[in-house]
Amino acid sequence: MEKQISYRAPSDSVIVSPEPMRSGLLRELILLTKPGIIRSNLMAAFAGFWVAAKWDIPWMTLLWMLIGTTLTMASSTVFNNYLDRDFDLKMERTRNRALPSGRLQPYVVLMYAIALGIVGLAVLFLLVNPLAGLFGVVGVFVYVVIYTLWLKRSSTWSTSVGAISGSMPPVIGYVAVSNQVDIGAVLCFALIFFWQPPHFWALGIWRVEEYRAASYPLLPVVKGIRRTQWQMLPYVACLLPLSWLFYGYGYVGIIYAIAGTVINLYWLYHITTGFKAEDTTAWAKKNFLVSITVLLLQLAILILDTTGK
Fold this sequence. Notes:
309 residues; 1% strand; single chain; Tetracycline Repressor, domain 2
């Protein structure tokens, strides 16, 4: 049996056991990966896989795809935490994260990000297929280099360009089965790409003063809330034909074609209510939650209504 060693803090008489220390470290490492982002992107990857497989599921490929995608996305988010630690210190929403609060050292987080990326990409390249690995590389590069290091600190285009990275999971899932880039992969990419900017801009309006204080050149900070609301509309409008394109190319049935249209029309309507909202913060918070619901419903119905071979 392992001998338990206790440590006495010099400033008081509190006994600290290694078990809470280890569990605390594990929690910090998990939080660095931004589990909420991982969950939604994994569902998107699963949906892309299911659309390509059409209910004829290669289960081991699915398992390795999910593992590789999880680790690759986790690497990107940990790199993001490492590179944004100075900005995170300026925002109330992020200043209590492990790096800005000093609970973890930067070099530990950097090594963690590198290790996750190496293992995740190796799984995609070697145990799924090279095309899935290639799109994993694209996702990491766009998120870490183009979005985090460059545009996030200098341009309002960061949200739109960064959406390329967030659209890689469903593409990885799709090509894991198809091993080719065809119209199905394009539709999976477009579904997540057009959803992301209005989703993130809702958060940006909700937390606009925090982003302003941190000097982020986010669209609502630079161009204002009304301009951002107008900018949301074309992205959501672009979602409207996608459900019918999925249907037209034979990937789904009529249920998704109709339901997807109704869901997107509701989101479009909710965005327009923001032009008359007296409290734009409350409206943006609700719109942010609406956008999450929209994505979850879209992906769930897309999966359930996928047509067989």
